[in-house]
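Blinded run. Sample ID left blank on purpose so nobody reads anything into the name before looking at the predicted structure. Input follows.
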Amino acid sequence: MPHAPEPDEDDLDAITPPQPVFHVEQALLGAFLLSPHRLDDVRGIAADSFSTAAHAALYAAISTLPRPDPAEHAKNTTWLDRVLDTAREQARGLTASYLHALVQVCPWPSHAPAYARMVEAEHARRRLQTAAERLVHTVHDVCLPHPVQTVLAEADALAAVVDDIANRFPPRAGVLPRTTAPPPPAAPNLAEAVEEEQILLATATAYPSDIDSVRWLLPDDLTLPLHAGLWQCLTALARRREPVDPVTVLWEAQQRGLLDDGSEPGEVLRMLAEPAGSVEHWGERALQRSLLATAEHTGRRIEAYAGDPANTPFQLVVGARRALADIAAVRTRWQHATGATPPQRRRPSTTRAGPPTTTAAHAARSTRATR
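Blinded prediction complete.
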């Protein structure tokens, strides 16, 4: 006959066991309650370093109240009563029995500096995880008027957290997180990205002399492998100063094996025959998507590292800095794309007519680009 659980048994099973740092915090607080002078041996922690409100309130009370006389403290609980009363102002559920339990679970009060270092390390991991989560959240905030600037500001805030942790826990060379990094995220608006990239490729095919003005755009900035490969074809043909049109790009694509995935040559030709707007505009749009995607991937990588309690602060610093380097690289290209005066647009050397320049023609191109 199967075992029938008691009424409260399932509820008990649902309670998550405390993490190791909870027991470390108990040992540290017990050391302070037994020997308040141990506070002088501890550096690098504050009330917000603790994982629970009760522990934070106790540490705040212990560290702010005047120290008791050691001889008197050994005889009575007067100071402990004051600690409890003060801590209850922030954590009403605290009891005298819990303070007694903290004293009982502390194995060696003299080990307080080691316990404090463990608490500091766990706090560093939580801080890093929170900063990474904020970065990812900002990437997905559709209400931002200036998404790139806001995301880069959050990336700077995340880097500042990493630097602070590095100052507290200098990284050791070659120590990487053991955690497997998540795969890059998919584009949130893939259909829009695909359409804009197709217009970019077509416009660059129509006006290849403008390709030189977007050197900051890399194939990896485009969302589809075919698009990335076609951009490589375009830049290669322009660099070699060979004729550029849909047919020559298609031939270059065949030479590079881009059609081996089943792409139809006719579809490629049709895609490359519908230019609109300017290469600079669509290139900047693609680079912005790449920057935001890189920021999200960086945030999720650091989230994964910080979410693994087996990673030490040393490993977190090394892994986070390597991840942040990806944002720095695309950020430099974004500054080149948006910070400098756009170069003078050169006309194609062929006799083919250039794009219309009237206001009406520009409006027509914009309408096609945003279909």
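Unblinding after everyone has recorded impressions. The chain has 15 helices and no strands.
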